[in-house]
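About this split. The held-out portion is used to measure sequence recovery: a designer receives only the structure tokens and must propose an amino acid at every position. Recovery is the fraction of positions where the proposal matches the reference. Here is one held-out target exactly as it appears in the evaluation file.
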């Protein structure tokens, strides 16, 4: 565990595209990454590339070593993982535990909270590549934070340390937030994929390059419009 004041010993569960990047971001903020789990060869390679000095350890050991446990696993795996660790008595009182699933709030971590752990849900609104490129992109992104009121400042601070701008999302609104993220991600990918296929069909070389500026400028324009008030309020009449 880190001996630096205000810094945490962090364990990363899952060396997918999200987990290894978040570990690298937290390491860059001065936290000590004490271990990471990695099952596949691809995940081990990713962990080695982004966290070269961090040991790959069994799950129980990562949790045991950590003051902050980051659960960067798919939505379907999250609840069984938390419950299984609770059944094994793995969670520790005062230990921070956060997950990164967009659609779920902190309540999915209730089995850990029952053993004294402090639950948070953080979701960086970013399409991760699992490479160091994401570290720069995090600095331009927002991070949804869902936690009990006393814990929200911790979640906000962690989001900032990741490089992102925190935005508080209520527990009851987390499903709607997740739907918004999924819609933006999948719809964008589907539409761009269709456009690329059409250009390929007429023999255009490098269709992605042809569309890049158009897509980026269109998205920028739409997002700019989204931050503009829908109407200007009428001036108040003189009394």
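Reference sequence for scoring:
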């Amino acid at each position: 565990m880190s001996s630096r004041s205000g810094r945490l010993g962090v364990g990363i569960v899952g060396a997918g595209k999200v987990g290894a990047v978040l570990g690298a971001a937290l390491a860059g903020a001065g936290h000590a990454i004490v271990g990471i789990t990695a099952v596949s060869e691809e995940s081990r390679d990713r962990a080695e590339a982004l966290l070269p000095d961090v040991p790959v350890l069994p799950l129980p050991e990562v949790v045991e070593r950590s003051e902050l446990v980051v659960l960067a696993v798919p939505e379907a795996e999250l609840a069984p993982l938390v419950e299984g660790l609770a059944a094994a008595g793995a969670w520790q009182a005062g230990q921070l535990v956060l997950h990164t699933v967009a659609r779920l709030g902190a309540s999915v971590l209730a089995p850990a909270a029952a053993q004294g752990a402090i639950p948070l849900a953080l979701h960086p609104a970013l399409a991760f590549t699992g490479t160091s490129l994401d570290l720069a992109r995090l600095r331009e992104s927002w991070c949804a934070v869902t936690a009990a009121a006393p814990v929200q400042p911790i979640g906000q601070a962690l989001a900032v340390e990741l490089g992102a701008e925190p935005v508080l999302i209520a527990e009851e609104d987390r499903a709607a937030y997740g739907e918004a993220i999924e819609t933006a991600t999948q719809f964008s990918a589907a539409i761009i994929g269709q456009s690329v296929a059409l250009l390929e069909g007429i023999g255009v070389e490098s269709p992605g390059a042809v569309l890049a500026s158009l897509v980026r400028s269109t998205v920028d324009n739409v997002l700019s419009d989204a931050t503009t008030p829908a109407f200007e309020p009428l001036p108040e009449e003189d009394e």
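Annotator remark: Confidence is low (pLDDT under 50) at residues 1-5, 230-239.
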